[in-house]
Structures are given as structure tokens and as C-alpha cells.
Design a protein that fits this description.
Largest sheet: 2 strands, antiparallel
Number of strands: 2
Strand content: 5-15%
Strand order of the largest sheet: 1-2
Number of helices: 2
Order of helices and strands: HEEH
Shape: elongated
């Protein structure tokens, strides 16, 4: 399902394939957390902005 992505991650040195599993390298963990931070902050900022106006909104569309 993620063949291209895993192939690229291997080429960039972000993962190592060991048997049938993939393991993040230190370099891969750094990049994963770096980009995860952007997503998490964007999600939390939007959610907090909505909840600042209404404490218990019926729906939040992200």
C-alpha cells in the first residue's frame, strides 16, 4: 500500500528494512517529529480558536 513512500524513505535514510518490518532511523525520527509538530499545532490552534468562542461545540470541521 505504501510501496513508493517506503522506498523513498529507505533512499533518504529515514527507515531500515529488517526482515519484514521497517524501523525508523534517528534521522527518520527527527523528520517524523519535525513535520508532526506542524500538523499538531495547526490542529490544536484551530480547535482552541473554535472552543474559545463556544466551549462545547456540537461539531468541529477541520
Amino acid at each position: 500500500m505504501y510501496g513508493l513512500e517506503l522506498w523513498l524513505a529507505e533512499r533518504f535514510g529515514w527507515v531500515n528494512k529488517s526482515g519484514g518490518t521497517y524501523e525508523l532511523t534517528l534521522k527518520g525520527a527527527y523528520h517524523y517529529h519535525y513535520y508532526e509538530n506542524f500538523y499538531t499545532l495547526a490542529y490544536i490552534d484551530k480547535m482552541w480558536g473554535i472552543m474559545r468562542r463556544e466551549a462545547f461545540p456540537e461539531r468541529i470541521k477541520l
